[in-house]
Amino acid sequence: MRANRPILSILLWTLLSLVTLFPIYWLFVISVKPAVELFTTPSVLLDTVYWKNYVKVLGDDTLRRYMFNSIVISTGNAVLVTVLAFMACYALSRFDLPGKENIFFWTITNRMAPAAVFLLPFFLLFTQVFVIGEWKLYDTRTGMILLYCTFNLPFAIWTLRPTIDAIPKELDEAATVDGATTWQVIREVIFPLARPGLAVTLILTWVFAWNEFLLAATLTSFNARTITTGLSEYVTTTGTEWGTMASIAIITLIPALLIFSVVQRHIVAGLTFGAVKE
Amino acid sequence: MRSNRVGWLLLAPTIAILGIFGIVPFLYVLYVAFHQWNPFGANPYMIYNGANNFRRLVFDNEFLTSIAFTLKFAFFAVLSEVVLGYFLAQLFMKEFPGRGLFRTIHTLPLIVAPIVVGSVWRLMTTPSIGIIPYLLKSWFGYDLNIGRDATMAFALTVIMDIWHWTPLVTLTLLAALVSLPKEPFEQAQIDGANRWQIFWHVTLPMIRPAILATVFIRLMDALRTVDEVWMLTGGGPGAATRYLGLHIWKIVFPKTDYGYGSATSVIVLYLTLVMCWLLYVALVARRGQKRAS
């Protein structure tokens, strides 16, 4: 499979894409079927399209609010986490801090906790500890942005560290000799070279925050409720409104896709100067 | 070397946030783990009962089988994802028409929330209404019933996980491959190395840290999967897909047995930690040796 045989690549990718797209196509199929038709004999192709679910979802103010919350929380959290992780990884990679490998490992342990039991202490923290007068951290976007750091920050630090470690130390030493400050080294030397890694970190932390369900379901009620939690309100024990849920899910793909296509370009930006040849 | 104070300053916000939202809740859970506490039970107060919860765990058959199933699930899912993800990342390194489009398509599964993924896969596979059993039946005459067939239910959770998370591996490894320097590859080619030798002696050592980090993340996430499997199989049939995250969920929510649930979580956390630590030490130590020689 060399570069001079693009047909083969395209064939392979088309096949893979079909597999990748099928469940998403099916999600769309569910979203444009009336509830009764879901429980009849299935067929791969659509014969009639039923848009009522979308009309209902798009006209819903509450869902628009949830969508806005999701965008603010995911973007806020992804940016915060990427910046903090970038700082932390630079420190871990370039300074001779005592016990730094242990700190590095400790960060990841925060992602290992099974969520179910930790909901309770988080709930107590949010409703009883972080309270200033009338104000509570509970059901605020700030609270969710901070809380999502528990699983996103370790992730970001672990994905970014190899990238920063791989940047030759000689480069920043040379810059330091030339009189650059730490801030200048980070901005002028490390940042441009770490761009693919930073882009991936930003995308993936954004995705994790966007998709998170358990914590948002417990720690928000209305003001800061996210769309993922909002759509799960249609999944109940007495019966699920599959169509409504699926149409919300399809709509939530759009902002996610936009952010993806903007940031993804930076991943391969590095290809122009550091391509691997086989 | 510059003064360490700058280094600590750069690390401080991370340590502060993870300290507050990581260590404090953990200590709380640890405290509850030594108590008998069912807030909605006959006696809603916390009663100290020493290590009884832990003693009960050792003989808890459900818990022990859950560990075995979870490990099996994590092993198959993560191994396939890393192999497949690496292969796909390599394919993306080559220029071909439509690469950008295919890359976008390939990352789509990531942006579908786990709870939605579980729902869709469930609707696709439920006997008599799902498209997959229907096609399998009419094309191959095969009966797929994940409500009864434990092996198929297990396989399906693995396949769903692969579908959902391989793009993550592809993206992280793609970023790692993209930022590799060019010279070692050119040098190897001049030296007449074949493709396998280049992979084994040049590419692999350089991206090993990235692969390691990805395996860790995926392993941890696979060990605490809840939403997707909950929606797809609900843990069944029997306990075949009742993975640890779901197992704890079932102790804490339908049964509201907080004390026992906390003890289970502490042990699960401990096992995950030890496993990852051993893996980490083994791999990092090996890397260190190589560098020294």
TrEMBL record, chain A:
Primary subcellular site in the record, as a coarse category: membrane
Pfam families: BPD_transp_1
Top-level division of the source organism's lineage: Bacteria
BP GO terms, sorted: transmembrane transport
TM helices/strands, residue ranges: 7-28, 66-92, 113-131, 143-160, 197-222, 242-263
GO cellular component: plasma membrane
Annotated compartments: Cell membrane
The family this protein is said to belong to: Belongs to the binding-protein-dependent transport system permease family. MalFG subfamily.
Name this protein carries in UniProt: Maltose/maltodextrin transport system permease protein MalG
Organism: Mesorhizobium metallidurans STM 2683
